Amino acid sequence: MSSDIAVRRTVAEVLDHVWENRSTIQSRDAYAMMLLALGRENPNLACVSADMNFEDHFALELPRQHVDLGIAEQNMIGVAAGMTVSARPVFANGMSPFAIARAYEQIKIDVAGADLPVKIVGTHAGLASGHYGPTHHSLEDIGVIRMLPNMTVVVPADAWQAAQATVAIAEDPGPVYLRLGRQATTALYEERTEFVLGRASVLREGGRVLFIATGPHPNLVAAQAARELAGRGVSAGHLNMHTVKPLDSEAVLHASANAEVVVTIEDHRALGGLGGAVCEVVAEAGGPPVRRIGVPDVHYDLVGGEEYLLHHAGINVDNAVAQALDVLA
Amino acid sequence: MLTQTPPQTVAEQLAVQIRRKVIEMSASPNGVHIGGSMSIADLLAVLYAEVLRDPAGVGSSHDRDHLILSKGQASAGLYAVLASTGVIPESELATYAEEDSRLGGHPMKRLPGVDFSTGALGHGLPLGLGVALAGRRFGHDKRAFVILGDGELQEGSNWEAAMAAAHHGVDNLIAIVDRNGWQISGRTDECMSLEPLAGKWAGFGWRVLTVDGHDHEQIRAALTGPVERGRPTVVIADTIKARGVPGLQDTKQSHSATLDERARRAALAVLEGGQA
Prior knowledge:
A: alpha/beta, 2 domains, seven-stranded mixed beta sheet, five-stranded mixed beta sheet, 13 helices, Transketolase_N (chain B)
């Protein structure tokens, strides 16, 4: 928990602060700072949590708006849905593997089916829990949530985008899953770009190859892979698909129209997540071949840190370049 | 009330109407959860006639009560009370489980008078806790009444909510357990023991009341008496599954059934005759 979170800042000041510190702040701290600023401005905003500590400042400063529900994610999601009778929006914080997988039925019926303004925020997503192992990895969350009607799925690419996304999902009237990691990651953006829910962010204009990535590490891999391909004389575009649902299919089709291969990259199963979503759109349009980079369809019990596990799963620059060139060859 | 003719109070009259409508809906070839609908008929009657403030949310005030039928399989009982209290048209009951009807086998939020879709067991108490907590924290005078099946209590999420409700001192949350003693596979206590049920709730920090779930006086006293400040209340209502339905009362077969015309006539005759 960073004491920096508690500093009294407005929404605009949080954006400035996170932008200035975008490569050292964890996304979840950027989120926590923004949530506190939003909670100060909107007395009807509620925050419930399942024994999380990164939001302690919210609980201390805005106790009326905060409820800790202990290590009980099913109850937390149901309570969040119930609270919408008087509070809007309701943010529900948990660790992604538990908030999503354990409470899936509550999310399906009480949140998504009911189309309520519950914002489920899951930290430690993907392989962010590293050596803590598969119990704490969350590799199916994007896939299972995107199958639910009404849900919006947002995966910020860095702390700056996490702060922006927090504002956007608070304003959005529907249910949302905001997927966050654990450690601070290198900033993706070099200028303060606009964030629009459901609108892909173009980091590099299209070419023979189109990388589509979601989340911090996958976007950093895509950016570097595109640069390496350019160095070899192969033009490559890069879309940051920060909103996996609703997928910006227009951007996918536009950017892939003249591409010879699309490569998707995510720190999630290669099955059913961003790669699956892109395949659905590209295949239906008769577009170019798609290669999906993600965690393979095996029980992933390798021990190691996040970066090691990502590399081992093929979520790395060499593999991204190789997958693209393999199709071009 | 079944044992009293003619019905005297509004609640007693409402109980008769609920039972009559459930019996009529049981003509549906798709099957009606008649047992669990009849066991809560008196609970619903007292709640809707005497306890709940604007349960259908037709008024403009956020200060109101919310009834959550967590045991959503008893939807026929709920539809019957919604029709009897003018929330939905009486004629609509004939569409139960028909194609394009609003009245499915489990209640859906798109029907007036239903705040939350239920039927997946173990969801209602967390929802009710959220309603009660939010009312208190966000300035609305709300109470949440959650009707739980006894078999439903085997779902662990109920106990997560029970623990949290007591921890947060949510005294505007009232759980009502329809203790009819049956679930799909048989006797509840043969499938999975619940006793000592009152002791379980008390151990979680709840104020526990036990009533005869067909005795309006007892139900009324439990639901209209003062709450205990800082503690949620559970009313364990001892009930009889399919009460008053010849051949089905207190049986496993009553869980979901279709009644042919003869069976419906027999059940209605019992209702009119007031013979339990």
